[in-house]
Amino acid sequence: MSKEVVRGRAVEIEFDGKRCIHSRNCVLSRPDVFVPGVKGEWIRPDAATPEEAVTLAVNCPSGAIVTKRLDGGPGEAAPLVNILRVLENGPLAVRATLAIRGVSAGYRATLCRCGQSSNKPYCDGSHVAAAFKATGEPDSKPSEPLAKRDGLLAVEPRHNGPLKVSGPVEIVSGTGRTVERTTEAWLCRCGHSKNKPYCDGTHKKIGFQAD
Asked: How is residue 47 annotated by DSSP?
């Protein structure tokens, strides 16, 4: 599915089907805006106020939904704390001012950690069909509070290797427990590390291939 852009009176909604992980926050919280099971136009910006539409986008973990205010009001704000959440049997959900491969990537993304996505480094839901199993509650590591908690977070997928994450970030479990506070991490994306969410070099042993 390609990108859809629907322009309302006061807000424009962009939906990128390739980024969607079907968290269903949109259709469950605002089925009047993202209308399930209908033929034709299923995104209806005018069913919400511009503020409500922005909130709806912010609650989309993958960044598949992005809004643009047309009324001059404030849009989505940069997060005050950069967070990388480890989802049970699923991807890494990142909320930060993101640059991926050196390109600005908004404030939200879900990154593949099963190794099966056809849209790497983004998750495309392939972990479900692959029956990927990985805890969302990894052990906590000793770490000190960060002096700076926001700002640019750079994600660099290494060729045939892990994700290098550079910048202030709090890695948290699926339930929000602090796993580590750091300014650099190497995270598994082949799906086979014994130390998930961190890389342990297994990608070399299994011949993992990814740009």
From this structure: G
Per-residue pLDDT tens over the stretch 86-136: 999 999 999 999 999 999 999 999 999 999 999 999 999 999 999 999 999
Domain that holds residue 8: 3-69
> Is 103 contained in some domain?
yes
92 and 183 inside one domain: yes
Q: Are residues 95 and 199 in the same domain?
A: yes
Q: 176 with 165: CB under 8 angstroms? A: no
- For the full predicted model, state whether its pTM sits above 0.85: yes
Amino acid at residue number 45:
P
* Alpha carbons 123 and 106: distance in angstroms, whole number: 16
CA atoms within 13 Å, Cβ hemisphere of 45: 22
Chain segment 26-43, per-residue pLDDT in tens: 999 999 999 999 999 999
- Between strands 163-172 and 103-104, the pairing is unpaired
Neighbouring-strand partners of residue 157: 163
DSSP bridge pairs for 152: 97
The span from the CA of 206 to the CA of 162, in Å, is 13
In a domain, 17, yes or no: yes
Mean pLDDT value of segment 156-182:
98
Domain count, the chain: 2
Residue 49 has pLDDT above 70, yes or no: yes
